[in-house]
């Protein structure tokens, strides 16, 4: 079956606290583990009122500690905010504590606005050095006798933590292909260059000892409910949240608004329809045809799902229904 995974931003909902968000994350991770999802990734964002996963490596350790078999990782660590050595040490520590269960996804964006990026003491030229920083980080995971410099990541040295390149552009696709690394595309909020990036990555891929052939993971938003009409209301929380970001007024994650789409200016509605086009809202029955068409068209090797729902019980139900889609998708592909 096509592996399904979970992307979690540890959402802080309106009226709740980061502590509530962490409790929900731990609960959702245990559920995803029990439902045999492949991975549970957390994303680095800063100064965002609705996202509690800023200290990503710490949260990954907590999630790994309450789960049993699911791989836990970053989707992603924004490498320009950190020294490669520090990241190698953090993820070497995680891999030592939870052997065989840690992933390291790396991104080039700051995960923040420019003012926050400077508050992170980030070198404004760091994104330009992203390819070199990735190579340096990879070296820190090599065995001690193959590291070409005296500095070592301890722990980290020799652990070969799986490294992914994350992105939403052709730049990331070319880099992942050149380095022979698996590639995760952020189609859940930036689908514009998805098809071109995937094609470029697959065409230019250079096999490595880390990845023998191109390996693509696509990320989508999944808002499922037992009733399609209910799901179409639940997804309006995501629309409001994204609109607030685009308007420069980020907020906590809001409750659904059933009449939202009828009140939006046509320009904003068109923006949402384009930017969030890889969002699947409905029941299993209504989502399955569109999802299988998406998978047939793009042929990802894995699918990662974000579950942007306001109510945690509804989010849990959406994860359960998503797990139930896996055999249905598999049956459709076998019938082709």
Per-chain topology:
Layout (H helix, E strand, L loop, with lengths): L3 E5 L9 H17 L4 E4 L13 H11 L4 E8 L5 H14 L4 E6 L6 H6 L10 H11 L22 E5 L2 H10 L3 E3 L8 H11 L11 E9 L3 H7 L1 H11 L13 H4 L2 H10 L3 E4 L1 H15 L3 E5 L5 H24 L1
Parallel strand pairs: 1-2, 1-9, 2-3, 3-4, 4-5, 5-6, 6-7, 7-8, 7-9
Helix pairs in contact: 1-2, 1-13, 3-5, 6-7, 12-13
Architecture overview:
By secondary structure, this protein is of the alpha/beta class. 45% of the residues lie in helices and 15% in strands. It contains 13 helices and nine strands. Helix 3 packs parallel to helix 5. The mean pLDDT is 94.
Précis, in short:
The chain is of the alpha/beta class. Helices cover 45% and strands 15% of the residues.
In the predicted model, the low-confidence regions spanning at least 5 consecutive residues are: none
The biggest beta sheet is recorded as: 8 strands, parallel, barrel
Element order: H for helix, E for strand? EHEHEHEHHEHEHEHHHHEHEH
Terminal CA distance reads 15 Å
What's the helical proportion of residues? 40-55%
Tell me the strand percentage band: 5-15%
Radius of gyration, CA atoms, in whole angstroms:
19 Å
* Order of strands, widest sheet: 1-2-3-4-5-6-7-9
The total of beta strands comes to: 9
Number of distinct helices: 13
Summing up helix and strand content along with how strands pair, one would put the structural category as alpha/beta
Shape: globular
